[in-house]
Specification:
Strand order of the largest sheet: 7-6-5-9-8-10
Strand content: 15-25%
Distance between the termini: 63 Å
CATH superfamily of the largest domain: SPOUT methyltransferase, trefoil knot domain
Number of helices: 10
């Protein structure tokens, strides 16, 4: 294959894509910049027709392509007959996150993810964050996954609704949040039972790396540690599962019955 074609295909494979029907519909209904819509030729499903109508309403180019083209664009993921080529996902600022809380007349509830490496974990966390009314998520630029097409698909559209801030130094960002009156919580094996956590007020919750937990320097910034009690033989939880439990404990205290 000529070098120019190799570069073209490599660039295309590394591009930003929204993959799957529900994520595609969410993106088309949002203000996300979309460059092109690819749908599998011959599919007659209602969801595909809805996607085409939404695309046409936004005056987007819709290309009917063979399945192997979508397989290539989706890099093996289950695309369900649709892939959107999009502009790079835009990251939010701290002001964006705090403004979202202010618009809802709520005290900020922020997630701080310390070097989450698995895009499926990040996507699942974003999905839970959206469901539970988290105002924003903060991730580091280095040694952690960013907003990718896999994250977008796993989030089932939540990536369009939860502001994500990407920072160079999590420790400095947490110090800034604390100066603004935010109380910072983190997970630890020897902490307060998470079921006793009262998340009212301005709070930040740190979720640690899948294997190493919260880094030592960041842990020093934590005002109180929380632990999830376990009585089984496996004394650990998937990062997204642990995050979900803690997020919904926060939800239950912030929105009591």
């Amino acid at each position: 294959m000529p070098q120019n074609n190799q570069n073209k295909h490599a660039k295309e494979a590394q591009g930003d894509f929204v993959i799957g029907r529900h994520p595609a519909i969410a993106a088309l209904k949002s203000e996300q910049t979309i460059n092109k819509v690819f749908v599998q030729e011959g599919l007659k499903a209602d969801a595909i027709r809805d996607i085409v109508k939404l695309a046409e309403k936004r005056k987007l180019i819709v290309s009917q392509v063979p399945k192997h083209k979508l397989d290539h664009l989706a890099d093996g993921q289950n695309h369900q007959g649709v892939v959107l080529a999009i502009a790079a996902f835009e990251y939010a600022s701290l002001d964006d996150i705090l403004a979202k809380a202010s618009q809802k007349e709520e005290a900020p509830f922020v997630l701080i993810l310390d070097n989450i490496e698995d895009p499926h974990n990040l996507g699942s966390i974003l999905r839970t964050a959206d469901a539970a009314g988290v105002h924003g998520v903060i991730i580091p630029k280095h040694r952690a996954v960013g907003l990718t097409s896999t994250v977008a698909k796993t989030s089932a559209g939540a990536i369009e609704h939860v502001p994500v801030m990407r920072v160079t130094n999590l420790v400095n960002t947490v110090k800034t949040l604390k100066k603004q009156g935010m109380w910072i919580f983190g997970t630890d094996m020897a902490g307060t039972d998470y079921r006793q956590w009262d998340a009212k007020g301005s709070v930040g919750l740190i979720i640690g790396n899948e294997g190493k937990g919260i880094s030592p320097l960041l842990k020093k910034q934590v005002d109180e540690t929380l632990t999830i009690p376990m009585i089984g033989q496996v004394q650990s939880l998937n990062a997204s599962v642990a995050a979900s439990l803690l997020i919904y404990q926060g939800f239950s205290t912030r929105h009591p019955l």
